[in-house]
Write a structure and sequence with these properties.
The complex is a heterodimer of chains A (about 100) and B (about 130). Helices cover about 30% and strands about 20% of the residues of chain A. Chain A has four helices and five strands. Chain B has about 130 residues and is of the alpha/beta class. Chain B has a single domain, classed as 3-Layer(aba) Sandwich (Hypothetical Protein Ychn, Chain: A), CATH 3.40.1260.10. Classes of the chains: A alpha/beta (about 100), B alpha/beta (about 130).
């Protein structure tokens, strides 16, 4: 069954997102949290990579971490789903298991 | 009557540069840097701040941290002017690769390219990296 991958590091500073995407099978979910949320914004040098990944994965971003960083829904790439903490819990139950890429 | 410490000669003023390269909330670096900047400013040193790499996110407008239960320290950057910390520089490459412009920032800054930043670093006497 499908796995949920969580990524909490900035894609501009670390290769965590790349590592996760390289090892995530089709149908698994990607949840961006903490500094990982920077991958969810449009107009950056990593946006194309994330858009390409959407062909194989649902991509989610944690809303509270987005607002903390001065960003909002309008900055988030179309098709990336914004979830709150309750939504985070729902995802953890909805997917079979969780891999946290630290 | 003058307090004893007021009679002492003023210490040397050195050129201090703080290089901020981390995003604001994922690690403690940004907040710690700000604390140290305020200390140096209290000692009336010649302070320069640089925001580069993910450090540019420290001064992104509109931060709202209520939901993550962490203090939003971004308004403090606007108070730096009151401590005579007015030399704020931002890397052009870092802004552009993150889809940001100076309109997105909470403070007025001067945007420099990498060669200008390198030259500015060479002028400093003390560089502290966060």
């Amino acid at each position: 069954m499908a796995m949920l991958h969580t990524i909490n590091k900035s894609p501009f500073e670390r290769r965590t997102l790349d590592a996760a995407l390289r090892h995530a099978v089709k149908g698994s979910g990607i949840l961006l949290i903490e500094d990982g949320v920077y991958a969810a914004f449009d107009g950056t040098i990593v946006a194309d990579k994330v858009k390409a990944a959407m062909a194989d994965h649902e991509i989610y971003v944690l809303g509270p971490d987005v607002s903390a960083r001065g960003m909002s829904e309008e900055h988030v790439i179309n098709g990336v789903k914004i979830v709150d903490y309750d939504g985070f819990v729902d995802l953890v139950t909805q997917y079979d298991k969780v891999q946290s890429w630290l | 009557m003058a307090e004893p410490w007021e009679d002492e000669p003023e210490g040397p003023v050195r050129k201090f540069m703080y290089v901020n390269r981390r995003a604001p909330y994922g690690t403690i670096y940004a907040l710690e840097s700000l604390e140290v900047v305020l200390i140096a400013a209290a000692f009336e040193q010649d302070v320069t701040l640089v925001f580069m790499d993910d450090g540019v996110f420290q001064i992104k407008k509109g931060q709202s941290t209520e939901a993550i239960g962490v203090k939003n320290f971004s308004p403090t950057y606007r108070a730096l002017e009151g401590y005579d910390v007015e030399k704020l520089y931002v890397s052009r490459e870092s802004l552009e690769s993150r889809g940001l412009t100076t309109d997105d920032l909470v403070v007025p800054v001067q945007v420099l390219d990498k060669d200008q930043l390198a030259a500015l670093m060479e002028e400093q006497e003390v560089i502290l990296s966060f």
